[in-house]
Amino acid sequence: MTAEEILSRYEEKIATRGLRLRDFLFSELKGINEEVDATANIISFNYGKGYKNIICVILLSKKGIKLGFYKGSELPDPEKLLTGTGKVHRFVEIKSARDINNPALKHLLKEAVTAYTIRKAK
């Protein structure tokens, strides 16, 4: 199943926002791989197989879209975009195109890639 097929399961405004977010991620994360988990309705973006190579995931529900970050609890987040109460993972709620275009989200992605680079070097 493709990302487009998963997104097509949702109402138009969620699907459109998901496609915009996906385009944004591809433009910001050069050479990124996309993997789809149709059962969990998750689209992951990674630089290789395995959990530690994940940069972020698009989490879909009928209520909306969240952009989850691997080890998001460890990322610098001066704008306080990240939410969630888990010990490891955090997410950003994507409620509009404005959220996707927020410079703070671009900064979080850069921090996530930096964290990935450090993990990979170990």
Features:
single chain; 122 residues; alpha+beta; Aspartate Aminotransferase, domain 1; globular
Q: Which sheet architecture does the biggest sheet show?
A: 5 strands, antiparallel
Q: Strands of the largest sheet, in order across it?
A: 1-2-3-4-5
Radius of gyration: 13 Å
The domain tally reads 1
Strand content: 15-25%
Could you name the CATH topology? Aspartate Aminotransferase, domain 1
Give an account of the 3D structure.
This protein is of the alpha+beta class and 122 residues long. It has helices spanning 3-7, 12-28, 97-100, 103-121; strands spanning 33-37, 42-46, 54-61, 64-69, 90-94. It has a single domain (3-121), classed as Aspartate Aminotransferase, domain 1 (Alpha-Beta Complex). The protein has a five-stranded antiparallel sheet with strand order 1-2-3-4-5. Strand 3 and strand 4 form a beta hairpin. The chain is globular and about 40 Å long. The model has no long low-confidence stretch (mean pLDDT 93).
Brief overview:
With 122 residues, the chain is an alpha+beta fold. The protein is built from 4 helices and 5 strands.
